[in-house]
Write a structure and sequence with these properties.
heterodimer, A: mainly alpha, Cytochrome Bc1 Complex, Chain D, domain 2, two-stranded antiparallel ribbon, 18 helices, 2 strands, B: mainly alpha
């Protein structure tokens, strides 16, 4: 019955629309969407509360169509008439006054409502998504397989060696040679020497590797208090790195964004509808739940105005750390040097969970300083290097090779250690 | 017996080679690696516990060098529009010696605003994408909409500073000078395009607001 009712209503509405089209040639049905987008969409959505209420079913909620029209055209004047429903609505939405639309005709308003009604019936689209965990699993399986294979081969080799020596002993006995009493292999000197050499090599390899690795945290990928995906934000949604990390252009620190920066978008975006998110361990993450987690830090209750003073900072785990005896400045590299973030941080826009891409060792720094060309062109910062500018102009320096960071003192100790 | 031990050992070695590294590496000479001074973002909560007064905020009322004077209008409480209306007369202190860099302003606009309001200022950035993006509300059409073409600079400054409707405050990302530069950039684009094409809101309602 309900369906019939709705159907008849939409039929009636479309008939009204059709009639209006036929008579006036002013308003056509698809104008509803355009009109909605132009006039309403900045505060209203069809199925979601924004600054104003969700518009689905707006016709059923209002007692009278003429009242609804009057409200839309001039909400301030309509409020003064003392209408109970309108005043309740006004109070419920924190007394945010609705804009006035006196230029909208009744037909245009009907077209908008017609669009709202059709849009409300459309099922919300959900995108099917598949994780790419299968490929990772295969990798792990392979290394295990190789390990087992090596072990099996080693066992076979040992058995064969044993068989060989037994056969030799038998053959010797037949020939009548006297064989010396066999020495147990843990007393055999050549065996012991071999084991010592192997232990020395393996132990030495791991000791050196461990010693070099001290103080380096390449591939460090800590669990963060909120699962924040750089892939979703910087990759899929194309948010510029500097939207959140303001400091890279202004000073030493890249700066961790405050909760206010998160809430700039998440005041409105309160659910996640994109592709499936999976942690490194393969656990699926509920994006919407993570946004609610942010709301806890922000002290924000949905539907109420947000009081930013209630926000608590999120204690993100720092990944990239340089020892205290090294000085590094982001602005020098990003603003002056025009180095892309990805050069040192890897393809951040593809990382679900950020991991340390470079080992941040001194050799790594120095290599880059030796190879990288300084951005001399149109860069006031380097205008004092007059000799190099002159050499580049008169061809003494190959302009294709340019001036490297090393040439302007980029490998001097005191550039970074002081 | 020996072989089973070997198998077990190699098994543990393989398990040990987990490729997800959740812990940072080891450090030698920690006194050289960790700063004795309080670096940015260091935890200093224990200072308060031991009775030392430390606040990482600048003293109230301090003004950075070369920075604009503070915005004297405070944020309206919910449901009130007094200061929003009052901000219409607020103006940038046009001092020719401090010309705002519009190229830098364009860069800032593209980073901070274009994500919603669009690189063409058409209110259709990658987050909205004509309604297909994750952002549910339509961002303001900055060029071509009478409401925003005729909005005074001061009112724009109020909105960027404190936020308006679903837009949040950008005071944490943009300094006062940067905010003014971005607004001047938007105004310069509006002048170039000229006559507004969309009449979404009557001038009457703006006059009233």
């Amino acid at each position: 019955m309900a369906f019939l009712k709705r159907f008849s209503k939409s039929l009636f509405l479309s008939l009204v629309l059709l009639f209006s089209v036929a008579t006036t040639f002013e308003v056509v049905a698809q104008d509803g969407k355009a009109l909605f987008s132009q006039n309403c969409a900045s505060c209203h959505a069809v199925n979601k509360k924004l600054t104003g209420p969700a518009l689905a079913g707006v016709e059923d909620r209002w007692p009278d169509k003429t009242k609804l029209h009057a409200w839309i055209k001039n909400s301030a004047a309509f409020l003064k008439t003392g209408d109970a429903y309108a005043n309740n609505l006004y109070n419920e939405y924190n007394k945010v006054a609705m804009n006035l639309f006196p230029q909208l005709t009744d037909k245009e308003i009907d077209a908008i409502i017609g669009y709202v009604n059709t849009a409300a019936k459309e099922p919300t689209t959900t995108k099917p998504s598949d994780g790419d965990t299968a490929a990772k699993g295969e990798d792990a399986d392979n290394s295990l397989l190789f390990g087992i294979l090596t072990l099996v081969l080693a066992v076979i080799a040992l058995v064969l060696l044993q068989v060989n020596s037994n056969l030799k002993k038998l053959a010797d006995q037949k020939e009548g040679f006297k064989t010396p009493e066999p020495v147990a292999f843990w007393k055999n000197k050549s065996y012991i020497a071999m084991v010592v050499v192997i232990l020395f090599l393996v132990g030495g390899y791991y000791t050196t590797k461990g010693a070099i690795g001290l103080g380096r945290s390449k591939d460090y990928q800590p669990v963060q208090p909120i699962y924040y995906s750089h892939k979703v934000h910087a990759g899929v949604n194309q948010i510029n790195c500097q939207y959140c990390h303001i400091g890279v252009y202004q000073g030493k620190q890249a700066t961790i964004p405050s909760v206010n920066v998160c809430m700039n978008c998440h005041l409105a975006i309160n659910e996640y509808k994109g592709e499936k998110i999976v942690t490194e361990e393969g656990v699926e993450i509920n994006g919407t739940a993570q946004i609610k987690e942010l709301y806890k830090y922000a002290g924000y209750e949905e539907g109420k105005p947000w009081d930013a003073s209630k926000a608590k900072p999120i204690q993100w785990v720092r990944i990239h750390n340089l020892p205290d005896h090294v000085y590094f400045n982001h602005a020098q590299h990003v603003k002056v040097g025009q180095v892309a973030c990805q050069t040192c941080h890897g393809e951040i826009q593809k990382m679900g969970e950020v991991k340390q891409f470079a080992d941040l060792s001194m050799g790594w720094c120095i290599n880059c300083h030796r190879e990288t060309k300084v951005q001399f062109k149109d860069n006031g910062f380097y205008s004092i290097y007059e000799k190099y500018h002159a050499d580049l102009k008169n061809g003494k320096l190959d302009s294709t090779k340019g001036v490297t960071v090393e040439m302007i003192g980029g490998t001097e100790c005191q550039k970074c250690h002081y | 017996m020996k072989f089973s031990f070997l198998v077990l050992l190699s098994f543990f070695l393989l398990i040990g080679c987990d490729d997800i590294q959740r812990k940072p590496g080891k450090i030698y000479m920690p006194d050289m690696a960790y700063s004795r001074a309080y670096e940015s973002y260091a935890d200093h909560s224990f200072l308060a516990d031991s009775g030392i007064n430390y606040n990482n905020q600048p003293v109230t009322g301090s003004i950075a060098r070369d920075e604009e004077l503070p915005f004297h209008l405070s944020k309206d409480i919910a449901g009130d529009t007094t200061n929003y209306v009052a901000s219409k007369t607020y103006k940038y202190n046009d001092d020719s010696s401090k010309a705002l860099d519009l190229n830098e302003a364009e860069r800032l606009y593209l980073i901070n605003c274009a994500i919603c309001h669009g690189a063409k200022l058409d209110g259709n950035g990658p987050l909205y994408k004509g309604g297909d993006g994750p952002y549910p509300a339509k961002p303001a059409t900055l060029v071509g909409d009478v409401k925003y073409e005729s909005m005074p600079e001061g009112q724009m400054y109020y909105s960027v500073t404190y936020g308006k409707n679903l837009m949040g405050s950008y005071a944490s990302q943009l300094s006062k000078t940067q905010r003014w530069a971005v607004i001047k950039f938007i105004k310069s684009k509006q002048v170039k395009v000229g006559t507004p094409t969309i009449v979404s809101d009557s001038t009457k309602s703006i006059a009233k607001k």
